[in-house]
């Protein structure tokens, strides 16, 4: 892949700094190699191997079949052509040969490593943690500095004084590595050479994980060298209050959050501003957790001295202190008269929808009555909750947590019980959920609602229904004595209070409710509590109507509960019969008996004429019951794709032959979610989205069984749909089952039909993301099977430019560019792939945009030569233009080439230009931002 490169590219200009000064001439002050010996600079095999390994990890090609060829000269040359420009034709081939044969010199080695560093080209391994990647990069960069002697003031000044984009980008990476490793010598030399400390650097800190911080913010989080680093950075101009975010998360805030007392003290001495966030974060600290609590009291007082006179209510500033039950901090704010009325942040009670409350509500959540008493005067004030986060009063929170003493205190303090009762749940409903009879008594005594307003159909369970369902006899008795309604009809199962008692199966509870006047039974019951309850239903005339509406469900529930007495009683009353059903049973009695290994019931149900279902057959196959399967098949007719799939997954030819002999129809979608597959080591099959036996076979079956399935379908004249064939083909391609692929290619298929790879499908390729969707051609490109790509294009006429619907979709060419696979890229281009195919709506990108993001400058050059639109707009959601993508990822040479080739930064493209600058600076790529600005001219 030869292309002509402009000599104006930053890297080609920088290469002059890697030239040895000519002999008999004065040494060049700008050469980085002038102090290094010309001879004896051959790199060790270990160094060469590490470089080749790094090169191969930048481009995510699939592993070759012969590992010895992974670092061959031709492979290395291909990677270099994709990533780097060259001064003259053939340079990369010579360099690749030297590297792969361990004959490279220091300059060769440096030229590759420094290019990778300057363009931020790192490993694409999706399984590597960011901490590991940064640590590996830091070791490489600092080792180069040490081995070359470039960590001294002289060489760092050379790098920083050139004002060349490549040199500036390298120094950014060096500075970041020195900071992350606390290499004070290199940091100081760089700062003395003019490096600005007011920048963003990617770091990993305990509290936030991987993030971008200023050097001073990072120093504030460090334990060992924090004070030394803080002084060094501030002495060389670090802005003590600088933060990229306008939220007060300064270096001081980070020091407070990480409880780094020496850093807090030093930053205060250096004049750091105590922001609102700083004062709030001080609430994390308790006297027993610090050696100098007065330091944090000072932080609070400094902030209040400056802001106490404002009229603004600010309860959230104390929220952390309240949740930490930090009494001294709370008292400090209260003593200064802080204004604390209003709403605090969102809360999630029991994982439900977000709610809002007050600081007093937060105090209730701590379940500490001392904190509640301290803040009893706090109210909602003039705030009004949003629709997205309804208000929950402190009294409602106290009931929801079952806090008797706090509820009594709030009621005694004048809490509005009527307002609290009109929230999403009544107070009694909340108290019953916590099984707290004493709290229920208190609330009833103070006038809490026993029932909601009467209506024809109650949308939510009443306090009495909740108590019955939880079998809380004391509370049921209390509510009945408080005149709770007994015959409401509810929109939730089991529909009535008496039906709930029948499900629980407590005879005393049933009698109590009946004696109190409960009469309505309803027809929504899912189970009967026990034989005594069943007898009660029979004696009172309820049983026939219940069995008519849901007999099989009730019998299946009894079998699953292993209540044989009740199950036999229901079977004798013909509960297994499906009378006038309009919906499909979730679980038949026969399936329940099979799951419970209850052979007696299985036989009794079969004798009674119970219907055999696909799920029943499947359960039998999963449990390897070869003797029972023929008995079930004798009474089965229809389709059983799940059973056939189970036989395939178990690799059981015996089961398949029995199913085939019984003329089972395998068409239809397997219902994988109905079964537990853990006994087969396939725990994720409950979430499987496969839609045909053919897909299951393509995914899991070895070739002989796969061939058997095809022959069975053919002999029974069961024709696979084109959609099923395409989906199966995609799976076979991902699994790289070439015999399966060949068979499927002979069948009629809809090659624009796709399949979503969810986490139940374990594919060989790590590059395949969960919930990404692929057609066969896209799968072949993604798994980098060039021969399959060619066959799909030539033999099957696959649509080369089809991307599909949905987010993150790619055309085959866009996939190939993302992988950096030139063989497939060239193949697709030869067959007419559109270099300007549009980006998917959400997260999509054109081929050129992808190349720019990845830093594949050789591919980008080829696409431009073929007419790729350099100014094509980004995806509507989460998209980037080529210029924005290159800037965000620090691809210096890509950025320069795009600008040289006509990427526009004015007129209608000016907004995208400013976003590109912002993206570059937000990722710490200031050299890229400066390069952009130099082309704009007037920024």
UniProtKB/TrEMBL annotation:
Keywords: ANK repeat, Repeat. It holds the Pfam family Ank. GO terms for biological process: RNA processing. GO terms for molecular function: RNA binding; RNA nuclease activity. ANK repeats lie at residues 390-422, 772-805, 808-840, 843-875, 878-903. The keyword Repeat applies. InterPro entries: Ankyrin_rpt, Ankyrin_rpt-contain_sf. The keyword Coiled coil does not apply. PANTHER family: 2-5A-DEPENDENT RIBONUCLEASE (PTHR24141:SF1). This is Ankyrin.
